[in-house]
DUF1275 domain-containing protein (Massilia mucilaginosa), 248 residues
Amino acid sequence: MPVNYARRLTAPGRSSDANAHLGYMLAFVAGAINAGGFLAVQRYTSHMTGVVSAMADDLVLGAHALVLTGLGMLLAFMAGAACTAIMVNFGRRRALHSIYALPLMLEALLLLCFGLLGGRLAPAGALPISATVMLLSFIMGLQNALITKLSHAEIRTTHITGIVTDIGIELGKMMYWNRTAPAPVQGNRQRLAVLSMLASCFFVGGIAGAFGFSHLGYVATVPLALALMTLAITPLLDDAKSIATKKQ
C-alpha cells in the first residue's frame, strides 16, 4: 500500500473520496469478521439489531445464559464505540496525525491476537466462546464508531441495513417521474455508486471470511489485521517523528 495513499485515508483532514475508500476497506473487514466469525463462535457480531432481537427471543424461551451473552455483546460493542470516541478526542486535543489511525491500530492488534491465540486457546477451554464473542463485538463497535465519526455518519461499514435502505431511496429518486414537478427529483448517482460498493465489499469480505475460517480457522484474521496495521502505521510514525523533533 503506497505511503501517500495510506496517509490520505487516515489524515485528520477528510475528503469524501478518502472516506469512501476507507469505508470500502473497513466494510470488507467487517464482512469477513461477521461471516467468518460466525463459523468460529456461531454468532454474528457486527450488528446489534439481531443481538437485541435474539435477546428478546431467548428471554421468552427461558434461555437466560444466552440473554446474558447477548447483553455482554451489546455492552462490548458500546465499549468499543466509547473507546474510539476517547482516542479520537485525545488525538484532536493534541493535534495528532494519528487521530483516526489510533483506533485502527488497536483494531489491528486485537484482530492479530485473536488470530494468533484463538485457535490455540479455544480447544483447551482457556478462551470461552462468550469471551471471543465479546472481543469481536468490541472490535466491531470500535470500527463502526471510527467510520461514523470521520464521515459524519454518512458511511457505515459493520451492517448494511442502512446502506441497502439508502440504495433503495436513490433508486426511487431515479425512477421518479418529473413531468409536472416544479423541482425535479433526481437521484445521486455518485452516492449510489459508493453505497453499492460498500454493500459489495461487505459481501465479498463475507465470502473471504467464511472461506478463510472454514479452511484456516482463527488465523484467517491475521491478513486483515496486517492490512489495517499497514494502513495505520504511517500517521503513527509521523507523530513519532514530530515528538522526537520537539524533544531535540
